[in-house]
Specification:
Elements lengths: L10 E2 L3 E4 L6 H8 L13 H18 L4 E5 L5 E8 L8 E6 L9 H17 L5 E4 L4 H9 L3 E2 L15 E4 L3 H4 L1
Antiparallel strand pairs: 1-2, 2-3, 3-4, 4-5, 6-8, 7-8
């Protein structure tokens, strides 16, 4: 039996469908989290921890009414990664986060396309006036994406006080008025 979150938004871009997590996302998401590609997000994780992390993404929708969207190839329906608004307990302020679950996703502008759509949705629907992205200083691809999205390094901003987060960079996204 597969249960889906109801009453969650579905966004569409030129190449992508963005939706709340579904049961079929577990294996591809967990494969990413157990791989070295997730090293900038606390990975690689054990299968047990990866399952908990995917449950956290799904539960965020239930607890907050929004969360990371799973972005999927429009033609095939294949889940490619997660992107969007995220604000779990312990975060200092709302975040826009992203991940690309497969190397084939990278370098095609798909994460940028998904992030642009979900950021606009968060500003328009959730009323967020701003948000940050917490990025490991060694994650050059995420830093480049944050800059492409117009985010700038905010040395005055704080990050969650969690083990392993020392030195995390905080990128501040432009507010909705700057994106109009």
């Amino acid at each position: 039996m597969s249960v889906m979150l109801s009453d969650t938004p579905v966004l569409e871009t030129e190449r992508l469908i963005l939706r709340a997590p579904q049961a079929g996302d577990m294996e591809p998401g967990m494969a990413f989290l157990m791989d070295d590609r997730s090293r900038y997000m606390g990975g690689p994780q054990s299968r047990f921890q990866a399952w908990r992390t995917m449950g956290h993404l799904t539960g965020h929708w239930v607890m907050r009414g929004y969360g990371l969207f799973i972005y999927c190839d429009k033609a095939s329906g294949t889940p490619l990664g997660a992107v969007g608004p995220f604000f779990p307990e312990g975060w200092v302020e709302p975040e826009f986060g992203w991940s690309a679950w497969s190397p084939a996703t990278e370098g095609r502008g798909l994460v940028f396309e998904a992030a642009t759509a979900t950021r606009r949705w968060a500003y328009d629907t959730l009323g967020w006036p701003t948000a940050v992205s917490y990025i490991d200083p060694d994650n050059a691809r995420s830093i480049a994406l944050a800059r492409r999205l117009g985010a700038t390094l905010d040395d005055a901003a704080s990050h969650p006080d969690l083990p392993g987060w020392e030195g995390t960079l905080v990128f501040r996204h432009p507010g909705p008025e700057a994106l109009a």
